[in-house]
Design a protein that fits this description.
This protein folds into four domains: 125 residues, Response regulator (Rossmann fold); 166 residues, P-loop containing nucleotide triphosphate hydrolases (Rossmann fold); 91 residues, Orthogonal Bundle (Helicase, Ruva Protein, domain 3), CATH 1.10.8; 72 residues, Orthogonal Bundle (Arc Repressor Mutant, subunit A), CATH 1.10.10. It has a five-stranded parallel β-sheet, with helices on both faces. Strands 9-10-13-8-14 form a five-stranded parallel β-sheet. It has a two-stranded antiparallel sheet with strand order 4-5. The protein is 45% helix and 12% strand. By secondary structure, the protein is α/β, with parallel strands linked by helices. Bound molecules: adenosine-5'-triphosphate. The site of adenosine-5'-triphosphate has 18 residues, from helix 7 and helix 15. Keywords: Activator, ATP-binding, DNA-binding, Nucleotide-binding, Phosphoprotein, Transcription, Transcription regulation, Two-component regulatory system.
């Protein structure tokens, strides 16, 4: 249930707010003094989702109380009811993480917008606490599977990095090598595990929206910016911000990011207040960012700033000795999901898996094993659904077609095509990734490999499509 504490000594306003929130289903407590609020929030340890507090109360100042609550570990979203805060008050409130100052007499429309932002923030924090608990169990250095020297070296490095306060780390390696997994391991086994883990794929957000997504915005900062929006930088305060595909970030925005991570502070789009944060940045890219910075495609100063610690994840081809261990771990996961009992990896199949080039790395291996376990009829991993045959070993496209359909030109496992649409089997024979690749491939083919036409047909953005084309290794189609 949503909980709100109102700290307000004006009786009429206090009871009016209480009624209003109760009508909307909130559980409300009303404190006319700070002493009363102190008893509730410090002595009884009550932590409401939102606090709506007057600034000047008969027995003290609301800002001092917010500072006490923060020192006590209270993380409620805080809104001050006072438009008359001095610049120093506003700066101090921002530093203590207060969301807003609302002038009296109250503009109820503005109050609703601010409460909506606060509710989103409170929900995100709750999710974060839940995730921190399960994340710590799920993501330890041992979650990076493999006994090969390359995998062992990665795990040793992860163990070391988790014990030191590192402000930025750069992860390199091909798609599907585990950069996202490693970012989570670094966060959940590190010193910031209790803080938020916030991730953003820079290639999946249109360029003009990335800035406000990262840094947030003030109301009216641009057309459509209604309420105040806290960006991901702010949401990651006290934790980790994982920027995947950082190489896709616009060069202008790279300078703002560099300044923000160097100063650990920034301004929201359209805002004047400086927001201070304490974040660890983990950036990842499957491009060679050093080369990109030499060519002027990526800011050299940002590259140097984020690459103090650089960890390159090995491709699966470089550690084929780990395939057996990864596959047997995946058996457990997919058996549990499908109720199957696959436990035997026949040596001949292992040999096939080890001689394939795995351009999509562990992600691709997961997809292959998922499909095969789902369609298995006994304890042995069946060969027929692997889609890896001597023909395509070491040269296959990233999503191999099963043996009975080996044409690369046609979408891998789609049903006969209806020219106006596309029929996909929902019997477990295609993973979601397979389907996505199939849809993209088909749309590109139907639009003569014209990326912008495909963008329009898919109702997506150029950045998103470009990212997916790279993810599924379809560049050759559009560059031909
Ligand atoms: N060493 C490993 N042990 C166990 N699982 C792994 C390992 N490496 C990768 N995975 C799994 O493979 C899948 C793909 O990994 P992940 O998404 O982290 O790759 P990535 O390098 O971030 O890819 P991209 O560059 O496309 O974003 C995930 O399900 C991840 O858990």
């Amino acid at each position: 249930m949503r909980t709100i504490t109102i700290i307000e000594d004006e009786k009429l306003l206090g009871s009016e707010l209480k009624r209003r929130f109760e009508r909307e289903g909130w559980s409300v407590t009303l404190s006319p003094t700070l002493a009363d609020a102190r008893r509730l929030m410090l002595e009884l340890d009550f932590s409401p989702s939102v606090v709506l507090s007057d600034m000047n109360l008969p027995d003290g100042n609301g800002l001092d109380f917010l500072e006490e609550v923060r020192a006590h570990g209270g993380r409620s979203e805080w809104i001050f009811l006072s438009g008359y805060g001095s610049r120093q008050d506003i700066a101090r409130a921002a530093k203590l993480g207060a969301l807003d100052f609302l002038a009296k007499p109250l503009d109820y429309h503005k109050l609703d917008l601010t409460i909506a932002t606060a509710t989103r923030g409170a929900r995100a924090r709750q999710r974060m606490t839940d995730t921190a608990r399960s994340g710590a169990q799920k993501y330890s250095p041992d979650s990076f599977i493999g006994q090969s020297p390359a995998a062992t070296q990665v795990r040793t490095m992860l163990g070391q990095l988790a014990t030191v306060p590192v402000t930025s780390i750069l992860l390199g390696g091909e798609t599907g090598t585990g950069k996202g997994l490693v970012a989570k391991i670094l966060h959940y086994s590190g010193q910031r595990a209790e803080g938020p883990f916030v991730d953003l794929n820079c290639a999946a957000i249109p360029r003009d929206m990335l800035e406000s997504e990262l840094f947030g915005h003030e109301p009216g900062a641009f057309t459509g910016a209604k309420g105040r929006h806290r960006g991901l930088m702010e949401q990651a305060d006290g934790g980790t911000l994982f920027l995947d595909e950082i190489g896709e970030m616009d060069i202008g925005l790279q300078s703002k990011l560099l300044k923000a991570i160097e100063e650990q502070s920034f301004r929201r789009v359209g805002g004047e207040e400086t927001i201070s944060v304490d974040i660890q940045l983990i950036a990842a890219s499957n491009r060679d960012l050093r080369a990109a910075s030499d060519q002027g495609d990526f800011r050299r100063d940002l590259y140097h700033r984020i690459s103090v610690f650089e960890l390159r994840l090995p491709s699966l081809r470089e550690r084929t000795g780990d395939i057996a261990a990864i596959v047997t771990t995946l058996f457990g996961e997919f058996n549990a999901r499908s109720g199957k009992q696959v436990s035997i990896l026949p040596p001949a199949i292992l040999e096939t898996l080890q001689s394939y080039s795995w351009p999509g790395n562990v992600r691709e291996l997961r997809n292959v094993i998922e499909r095969s376990v789902m369609l298995a009829t006994g304890p042995k991993l069946p060969r027929e659904w692997l889609g890896i045959t001597p023909d395509n070993v070491a040269t296959s496209p990233s999503t191999p077609a099963p043996q009975h359909q080996q044409s690369n030109a046609a979408p891998p496992q789609a049903m006969p095509n209806d020219p106006a649409g596309l029929t996909l089997p929902l019997d477990g024979s295609m993973t979601l990734d397979d389907m996505e690749e199939c849809i993209i491939r088909t749309v590109l083919e139907r639009h003569d490999f014209n990326v912008m036409a495909a963008v329009r047909a898919l109702g997506t953005t150029r950045e998103t499509l470009r990212y997916r084309i790279r993810k599924y290794g379809l560049e050759a189609l559009v560059n031909a």
